[in-house]
Please model this.
Amino acid sequence: MVKKSKRTIPALIYQYQGPQRNVGFVLSPLYIEDSVEVEMEADPRTGEEMKALDPCWENPITKEVWVEILSELDQQVVAEPELRNFLNQFTAWVSNHLQLADGIEVTGNL
Model:
């Protein structure tokens, strides 16, 4: 019998490594239905106003906003090689998924 692979959603998980090891963020591609009108600073599904990144829940961020974020990250002068490597991997992951997705959703687990 051949096992079929389960359909998966690509996700990027970053977890805080401090004393409370359960704080982290999951980043996953965001797909918005055509019938949903997206407004800046509002959740594209619920219409709820978003004033800041919520560390406890979903934060749907559209492609247009991510383009600005990635541009700012690329312009950062970073002396530490480990941090530069992290930023390069992070921006590559986001850029890759934005080719097909409408944005990236950041979900906090605080």
Q: What stands out?
A: The two ends are 42 Å apart (CA to CA).
